[in-house]
């Protein structure tokens, strides 16, 4: 393999060679930087180029290995970091012009854990203002584009991460998820991710001036967007390493006990009144058949009420956002994002006062129902969205646009509200009138068992293929 092709390797393939000394870290990082310089101008996925410090770190890692230091599990893996998380010496702008000079005094736990494992940050990726859209555009850095074409939004809020990793810019893309911000970009770009459960990955920004609201703390999680499920198994044990700055982190190993007998999977096509698009149904059926073929026992059975848990959970979050965040959005946000927030509050009428407290309490009821259901069906295969991914700026088109983008995504934010892990994996490449488009499905796993969701993603991927391969063929053909 020539240096110009190293960027094509998965993180798992790359570490096999960097740890053995067959490929130097400098060569691996340089190849990814070259790819970034080739692909990023058309995508605007990476909005801060860290090539110089990445190459300096790569040489340091190579020297340390030559001197006898043991390489870390992610030795030499090029990664990107989302601009809403602290990286020492760089702005945590969150896509907001007023925060463009908010320089982080230290690394957030996820950045520190990646560094300790030997990863190399090559750039920082774009997010919408306040990281609160399912699309990625902002006045500070501009719009991010989807490598599949400009007919599809790149998703959000980790849209830069999803676009970058699928275009071959870094093997791992850091992102986070309060209502779907890892899974929306994975679904938009045909990538693989797992939204970790509550307390799984330590989180905190040293630059923050105050603690986040209780629902923001309990619904938001840090994670990775990758091109393959195996890379999640490689990298997530690094991400979940304990950090005392997150006092509610749960220090459990990545792998849990091996289940006895075949794993039962509940399969649902219920979209709770929203039309199920034929391509989404086809993706679900493909995923179902792949899991059956892999030895899972898949039964079409209805899980506890996702619509109620999701809608009430997001209305509760909107109540907290209205009380704690609206003032900042009004003061520092663009007119576009202010208008979107007004429609959010219409789509999800905020719970306030006693009602908000009651719904926060009812969160345990919804989580308990799912916990009991998952005693019989540990995994649940669901749609992610009921229709193929939406076009850019669809959420700027009033109530109808916000409803298509976020209103119908109950399978997404229900899992944030209940704190459950949820994998997201492509199972179909749809050929639509506007162009080719990947279709992802979601796999919910029991609390603390992200590994089971990733195993199921890997089983589907093994039978349908990895979505970046046809994408790269398309990109190579111009």
Largest beta sheet: what is the strand line-up?
A: 1-3-2-4-6-5-10-11-9-7-8
Shape field: globular
Q: What's the number of domains?
A: 1
**Biggest beta-sheet profile:** 11 strands, mixed
Which strand-content bin applies to the residues?
A: 5-15%
Mean pLDDT: 97
Structural class, from helix and strand content? alpha/beta
Specify the CATH homologous superfamily. Answer: Amidase signature (AS) domain
CA-atom Rg in angstroms: 21 Å
Could you tell me how far the N terminus lies from the C terminus, measured between alpha carbons in angstroms? 23 Å
| Spans of at least 5 consecutive residues with low confidence | none
Q: What would the CATH topology be?
A: Amidase signature (AS) enzymes
The CATH class name reads Alpha Beta
CATH architecture: Alpha-Beta Complex
| Record field, number of beta strands | 11
Number of helices: 17
The arrangement of helices and strands along the chain is HHEHEHEHEHEHEHEHEHHHHEHHEEHH
Report on this model:
GO terms for molecular function: hydrolase activity. Residues 28-452 form the Amidase domain. This is Amidase. It comes from Phaeobacter gallaeciensis. Keywords: Hydrolase. The protein is of the alpha/beta class. The protein has a single domain (3-476), classed as Amidase signature (AS) domain (Amidase signature (AS) enzymes). It is built from 17 helices and 11 strands. Strands 1-3-2-4-6-5-10-11-9-7-8 form an 11-stranded mixed sheet, with helices on both faces. Helix 5 runs parallel beside helix 6 and helix 9 packs across helix 16. The protein is globular, with a radius of gyration of 21 Å. The mean pLDDT is 97.
